[in-house]
Amino acid sequence: MSEHQSVRRELAIANRILAHEQVFDSYGHVSVRHPIDPERFFLAASVSPEQVQVEDILEYGIDGQPITATARAQYSERFIHAAIYARRPDINAVVHAHTESVLPFTVSSTKLRPLLHVAAIIGHDIPVWDMHADFGDTDLLVTNPDHAGSLAETLGSGRVVLMRGHGFTGAAASLELAVRVAIYLKINAQAQSAAMAMGPVKFLSEGEVAAVDARMGSPKATSRVWENWAHRCGADIELQVQP
Question: Residues with catalytic annotation?
């Protein structure tokens, strides 16, 4: 299997994992930076995540345009990925989703904060990007470089940015880590909502977040998590690539 085939397969698996773990619905997308050319990245054509096949993966330039002309429909919000890769050389994978449990934290004054140890990788301080502040009344879709640049600026040096009335975008040093960030963001949001209904919540301290991230925030902290998620959704078997 060539390196390009391997990367495409891993990205197809990531789509399946995030759909199976209910981070993605029929929308949402995940990308990975090209392993050789940092000015390029891989992203699926406009396909619902749980349906993505290896052959659906397209190659894009840092401007958000496909390297090779295609008649395939494309994600209109591919510029999210392009803008983050352009601004963050440390980032090698990007996830954008509309996860239901995260949405209340995008429109309320309650901050989403890590309370679960494995969720410390989402970061201690998670900003909320309000598209209306820069662009007024819109359809809330990030469909051009200006929109995406504003989002990337709010993300800053962090791993997660919430998007008012829309969802979130996550970014990490590897595809495996980006998938973990997205899944544990969802789990943490669910746990935080449940805990707040019971009373005051004791969140992880900034020092605890740093300590956990030092252990679990590496690009590939453990293979067993990825392998289990891939097996659970059947992608490890279905998405085989012939050499």
Answer: 77
